[in-house]
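Need a sequence for this fold. Nothing fancy.
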């Protein structure tokens, strides 16, 4: 039995959580918990309410620890309680993982140094600040580290990890059960294929969040070096 802990925090991207949760929960060999500082209900960035099932202080040693992304990532980059929890879990976890911009939180915890990793396409360029080697793929493995790209890539990441742990047939059985055979109505899920006007509009909407994130990533990286504490 593999015990999976998925970080659930205010303003997380709900699909970053619920995508992997659905996949791992469908696997008979997994038990899945949502973990946070407390077990009080919290609201995701798009309004879905979740209730964490275990608090940090009561957490077991998870076999798989997963950090999702979303707007709520920014405060976590300098949150010592969160970063210390992840560092402690990483000491014994079989896999340390992330979805989307959750990779930046792993970076702030010092867990990406020298590692190949991915994240949401809009933030891949921030990974080297934490000493990571950025890779533009849906899922990237580097030893015990597994990172997924943006949002929907969390489903791919979870299936790929089950494939690593239990074999391809186990993962394919889950994929079949979920009827995960995406045929999106538009070929616009990557900035290299989306119309330039759509990409620019996306960047403009997120300009303020991006500026804040750049500043926090820089501070988090300095803290890892022993400065700016």
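Here you go.
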């Amino acid at each position: 039995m593999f015990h999976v802990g998925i970080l659930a925090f205010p303003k997380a991207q709900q699909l970053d959580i619920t995508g992997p949760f659905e996949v791992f929960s469908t696997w008979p060999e997994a038990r899945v918990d949502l973990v946070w500082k407390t077990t009080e209900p919290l609201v995701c960035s798009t309004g879905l309410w979740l209730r964490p099932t275990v608090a940090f202080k009561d957490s077991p040693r998870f076999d798989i620890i997963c950090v999702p992304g979303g707007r709520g990532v920014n405060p976590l980059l300098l949150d010592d309680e969160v970063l210390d929890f992840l560092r402690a879990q990483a000491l014994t976890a079989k896999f340390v993982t992330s979805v989307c911009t959750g990779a930046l939180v792993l970076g702030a915890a010092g867990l990406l140094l020298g590692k190949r990793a991915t994240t949401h396409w809009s933030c891949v360029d921030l990974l080297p600040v934490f000493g990571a080697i950025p890779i533009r793929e849906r899922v990237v493995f580097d030893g015990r580290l597994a990172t997924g790209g943006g949002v929907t890539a969390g489903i791919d990441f979870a299936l790929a990890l089950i494939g690593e742990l239990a074999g391809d047939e186990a993962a394919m059985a889950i994929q079949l059960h979920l009827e995960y055979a995406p045929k999106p109505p538009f070929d616009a899920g990557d900035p290299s294929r989306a119309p330039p006007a759509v990409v620019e509009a996306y960047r403009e909407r997120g300009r303020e969040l991006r500026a804040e994130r750049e500043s926090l990533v820089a501070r988090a990286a300095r803290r890892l070096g022993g400065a700016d504490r």
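For context: The chain is about 40% helix and 15% strand.
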